[in-house]
Amino acid sequence: MSHPETITLSAAEGEAIIARLSVYAPSRADCETLIQVLRMYFWLAAAVQEAKLSLKKLRTLLFGRGPKPPRWRA
Fold first, then answer.
1. How many other C-beta atoms are found inside a 10 Å radius of the C-beta of residue 17?
2. Which DSSP state fits 24?
3. I need a surface site. Which of 14, 20, 57, 71 has the fewest CB within 10 A?
4. Residue 25 CA from chain centroid, whole number
């Protein structure tokens, strides 16, 4: 997934978009901004997940899998 275009909004701009959305009247510019915000969110979520997996792989390579948890028998 490629890095989406960076978007910069002030708190006031963000609140204004939220206010317009709350009355279901977004403009074309609002829709484009929200699309970019959502793309950034999903890119960031994927990057964090990938980093977690990479760290887990590195930890396993360096330290092994560790002891197996005990099995409970009924």
1. 19
2. T
3. 71
4. 26
